[in-house]
Amino acid sequence: MSFQERYRLWSENPYFDEETRQELGQITDPQEIEDRFYMDLEFGTGGLRGIIAAGTNRMNKYVIRKVTQGLAECVCDHGSEGMKRGVVIAYDSRKYSPEFALEAALVLAQNGVKAYLFDALRPTPELSFAVRYLHAIAGIVVTASHNPKAYNGYKVYWEDGGQVPPVKADQILARIEAREDWLGIEPMPIELAKTSGLLEIIGEEIDQPYLARVLELALHPALDLNKGGELRIIYTPLHGAGNILVRRALAKLGFSSVTVVPEQELPDPEFTTVPYPNPEIPGTFELARKYGTQMQADLLLATDPDADRLGVVLRNPQGDFIQLTGNQIGVLLTYYILSQKKALGILPENATIIKTVASTDLADEVARYFKVRVENVLTGFKFIAEKEKEMEEGGWGTFQFGFEESYGYLSGDFVRDKDAVIASVLLAEAALYYQQVEGRNLFDVLESIYKQFGYYLDDQESLALEGIQGKEEIAKIMNSLRQQEIHELGGTNIEKFDDYEQRIGKDNLTGLTYPLTLPRSNVLRFSFNGGGFMMVRPSGTEPKIKFYFSVKSDTLSEAEDTLHKIKVDVMQRIAKIRSV
């Protein structure tokens, strides 16, 4: 079916509601019609994400219906037991998130699959916990994480609480693609779904056991209880799902001096106070900094709309608020967890941390110092969760901590995704411990880590390249970098070049190649002599190509100079590729 035929179907057939047909009828730009209908919104690694609007390449209830129908058919393949175990559904504060979540629940019910639907917005990691806790066969969370307000998304989880694994994702995708017809997928009426037992509303009965497990991760609970009130914290949920559970977790531990940014406390699908609800971006902390100054706060915390990412700002000795990078937070938590467990005598012999290939190698050095194994996986927290599961089932490692540079962190064995509730608790406790016991702040700790292991400086650039042309341009950039023989960037020599798409690495010093064992992925990584790397990959969730930079030097000024030269070189190369 051509995009014109799809457009006519959606704008004329009475299966689509009047609002949808009116929206499509008002489009006058042929390119806009083509972009909305030239493809189906892609079901990628575990789900889909897109701009909210009518069309097959947009997020709307009809796309939700079709994808959920594919998931329902895969669940039904597991027979009556799988259908009874059911699917847990959570959602965040975005536009149409509650409606999309209910739509998914009622399509599942129509297929005879039980749906557990949260009574209000909840963090994504709690969905992961709930799948395991309820022994459900799958989970859905309706969220676009930290994307702009125009977006929404749909992520699928499987029975272990992790994002749906590749084999199962392919099965779901095959069911979705096998159904060319958009018509005829009807959700069950809500009252019938409830009375038949196929729709169950859940809430506090999941919150309590989840919070109990989060609190068990505290390494110094007595200190938290006795001294937690002395750490002044400003917290912002950025209008999202973290508000209630982050505050409850901190309060239960003893952190009683927590001030919530009032303008950002309640759900707001417009994200009125921030242009982009992403705790990586300094502007999201503007209001928190204002309250931090007023309250003389020690620590500012921000969680993204679905509360799986955590951003952190610290007050330095001069009283200025400085934002930490995702890598710095990851290294601080790695150091805190490993050093405290070793001191307490509870660090197991087969202790393991897991991080992504895009995250700083400084964490590897810290782990080696504590004689802890490091597993590096592909970018995306699903790979961290999969490796944790593999360790558990194989009995060859005990998971201590996992992180990715994009502000995702996890500890414990009861969640299989990044968790900003857990990260908030551990970061607050680390700040309190160093303040009360060692008379240091987290800046001091970070500086001591740099002095011991070397100054690692990290940065990231991304190019937004949207639409059909953008997709082609991203492919052009990746192909060009893959084919070039690059031996240095900004004057820093490259020791190794790893191509995860071809699953082959090359040692530039010897000219020898070696196999890469991680799954195939469109990622290129250039490792520098003496430490650090430059990595490039297309984003899996946004129309972007991302560039990751990590350098190591003996001093901060050297690291800054090296980083600047490498970034300038790389971006000039990219501009040249795009101009050809």
Q: How are the secondary structure elements laid out?
A:
Blueprint: H1 3-12, H2 18-25, H3 30-37, E1 47-51, H4 61-76, H5 79-85, E2 87-91, H6 97-110, E3 115-118, H7 124-133, E4 138-142, E5 151-158, H8 166-178, H9 190-195, E6 199-202, H10 204-215, H11 221-227, E7 233-236, H12 243-253, E8 258-260, H13 286-295, E9 299-303, E10 310-315, E11 321-323, H14 326-344, E12 351-356, H15 362-369, E13 373-377, H16 381-394, E14 398-404, E15 408-410, H17 420-436, H18 442-453, E16 455-464, H19 467-483, E17 488-489, E18 492-499, E19 504-507, E20 513-515, E21 524-528, E22 532-538, E23 544-553, H20 556-579
Parallel strand pairs: 2-3, 2-4, 3-6, 7-8, 7-9, 12-13, 12-14
Antiparallel strand pairs: 1-5, 4-5, 9-10, 10-11, 14-15, 16-23, 17-18, 18-19, 18-21, 19-20, 21-22, 22-23
Helix pairs in contact: 1-2, 1-3, 4-6, 4-8, 10-12, 12-17, 14-15, 14-17, 14-18
Structure in words:
By secondary structure, the chain is α/β, with parallel strands linked by helices. It folds into four domains: 1-38, no CATH class; 41-202, Alpha-D-Glucose-1,6-Bisphosphate, subunit A, domain 3 (Alpha-D-Glucose-1,6-Bisphosphate, Chain A, domain 3), CATH 3.40.120.10; 210-453, 3-Layer(aba) Sandwich (Alpha-D-Glucose-1,6-Bisphosphate, Chain A, domain 3); 457-579, 2-Layer Sandwich (TATA-Binding Protein), CATH 3.30.310.50. Helices cover 42% and strands 21% of the residues. The protein has 20 helices and 23 strands. The strands form four sheets. Strands 16, 17, 18, 19, 20, 21, 22 and 23 form an eight-stranded antiparallel beta sheet that branches. A six-stranded mixed beta sheet has the order 1-5-4-2-3-6, with helices on both faces.
